[in-house]
């Protein structure tokens, strides 16, 4: 497998830092440069040997790189691509860790038109409450899934190369279209986050919100864990995957309307069936190792 | 503090069994009888010394008891009260662990009219995925909350007695009206469960449900953990606390409608503010020991 001579992380955090650490452990990278705007965070990345050098200048940092990993929120990726475009080596591979893929594909097309054969958008599925370079870990991708959504222009050899690096990180690598990716992740990631925000805000709107929150227990805790997620990141995702998300939110409104009618009807058997359908599916889902992902 | 000579558990499971074990540890109970319909479960309770005797006959079991704890789903409580009414000692205290309280209060009024001074409805807040007598544990109520919702007829001395038993179990004891209880728990327990069922069913309705579930990860796992809850128990709760739940579900529909409009508007700042409100509140909620409840 081809080793990376110079890997540049644009955005040095949990996702990109753990990718760098895993490649280091696999002896598949010689030199890692961490780029970012938060100097404290970069310094920690350097102290922890997540990266070997740091920079606040993306354009300068990518010179001579053979792999660039864009690990920023999706909202910052376009400006970064524009900045680095004139400075990339002709055969530098560019990938990313963005949670949405149709919009990121459009950014590659818009800002790196000369580089497209070497661009392979990706999405490592490794959500965590933690963030920042200090949270990076060698084993984050062990057994985790990584979805690659190659561009029509992506070179097959380059796709294979990116796949092999992820495999070396211990990940299971999947490939699908950006559209299929965005629909799937709208349904099982983006929409649950938005529903959790909406639920939390509905509690806050109550006249007795403080008292309610005071008695909230473990069910509430788990249901709302993702409501504590980062506002900027989730604004970006909501706007980036707007169409799939709106479809799913509307389907959830319909679902909620049906549930309201069911509760109003006092039809115990129908209500049991409704709950049982969800309950059996959730128990089934939790059975294999999936709950550990 | 007054010790219990004969405690009868109607329904021998996690909630009632842990109450019995905690009282045993505090040396506040002499003899515990477990009543239930599942003989395997009763035998396990006996083997594990959660109870000292077992019975499948509630009416016979309560004879001579000075404390009865009704630990069944709310839907079974009325029939049990009716069954035991003629066999209770005049001063036998009756309490329960039901998750809804207005409907349980009505059951006490309907089926135990002679006993009301000695009846103190309660709700120990100790949700768990586990159930059954085998899951009962001495320390389940350590630091947990127990809400008592006395009847207008409940005797002050009796209320104090029940409160002291719970305190001896390590619980924090609160007192409020059944109405206030039901509104609070609709908002932070019942409705999250129903929303989680509805969300799960909306995923199951997708043409690509299997593929979506295959890529679901930790956010989905936590958001839907409560969707795996017991259908009969949650049907009972949905029907028992129908009015508060319908109010809250409708408020959540409104909230979802606002969120859809917000996503449609592509207004990044408003969307950030919306998410931030939820996120800050959730982070604040998780700060103290509450997350451990």
Automatic annotation (TrEMBL), chains A, B:
Annotated Prephenate/arogenate dehydrogenase domain residues: 5-293
Highest rank taxon of the organism: Bacteria
Record flagged with keyword Coiled coil: yes
PANTHER family: PREPHENATE DEHYDROGENASE (PTHR21363), PREPHENATE DEHYDROGENASE [NADP(+)] (PTHR21363:SF0)
Keywords, sorted A to Z: Coiled coil, Oxidoreductase
Coiled coil listed as a keyword: yes
Descriptive protein name: Prephenate dehydrogenase/arogenate dehydrogenase family protein
InterPro entries noted in UniProt: 6-PGluconate_DH-like_C_sf (IPR008927), NAD(P)-bd_dom_sf (IPR036291), PDH_C (IPR046825), PDH_N (IPR046826), Preph/Arog_dehydrog (IPR050812), Prephen_DH (IPR003099)
Coiled-coil ranges per UniProt: 239-266
Gene Ontology biological-process entries: tyrosine biosynthetic process
Entry-linked Pfam families: PDH_C (PF20463), PDH_N (PF02153)
Species name: Deefgea piscis
GO molecular function list: NAD+ binding; prephenate dehydrogenase (NAD+) activity; prephenate dehydrogenase (NADP+) activity
